[in-house]
Amino acid sequence: MLTPPSPRHGSDLAAVASRSRRPGFWTLATLGLALGLGALDYLAGPELGLSLVYALPVAAAAWFAGFRRAAGVAVASVFVWSAVEALQGSAPRPVIAAFNTTRRVAELVIGAYLLTRLKTRLDQEALSARTDFLTGIGNARSFYEEASLEIARASRHGRPFTVVYTDVDDFKSINDRLGHDQGDAVLRNIASTLRQTLRSFDRVARMGGDEFGLLLPETDLESARATLEKLRQALQAEPAAEGRTVTLTMGALVCIAPPRDVAHMIALADGLLLKGKREGKNTVQYAVHDRPEG
Hints:
The protein is an alpha+beta fold. It is 57% helix and 12% strand. The chain folds into two domains: 23-128, no CATH class; 140-289, Reverse transcriptase/Diguanylate cyclase domain (Alpha-Beta Plaits, 2-Layer Sandwich), CATH 3.30.70.270. The chain has nine helices and five strands. Helix 1 runs antiparallel to helix 2, helix 1 runs parallel beside helix 3 and helix 7 (180-197) crosses helix 8 (221-236).
């Protein structure tokens, strides 16, 4: 039912190459780098021009800490730069020194701004590549990456997790009766309900068409039953499409022992989903995977 996306295993999708979650650390680190470069510049003497090295801490701050902090690092770097010139006795006349200082700050701040914009654009592109355009939740690629990480965590720490494969009951008839716009609205509403009902660290993805994948860390069989029953009730409480409640059939694989890989794990959950379809739809089929695989 699903073809795995081409693998590109990210760190936590670390994801999405987003900016460092420790901007304070990077601000201090780049300020320290500016001081260190200033000391190196002083020891090298005025004959050896090291002016370009002062752009390094500003660039690092822009990439890892954001524009505002990078602008502060730029001002600090220019201060160190000017202080080194003064200590070396190579500082120009005050008017020229003031002009040079202003120019240097402007150049470094503009460079920081441009680099920050580039980083933001790259982050957006990376996020877009892992986001379903219709529903705003993750796509199959992001789900495979998150599931691979969860299997690795479970292998290290021996903690259970549950993967759920689900699709919308009679979705084709919704499209046929109400049109594809209404069908898209149903998918968006389901995605919104999934996100609002599940925990913040649970993962939700649209795997394709009307199929969704759920990844529930730290979830054993009892917890999975409670969570998915809560989810079914939340969906049934939503406004019905043309008087008919939208329901899901789900296949829930509770992994006490991690499967050998993501594709095999999803295939097992997909098999449970198909079993639920054969037995009447609007149901959840459970299985426990408790045998380690090679």
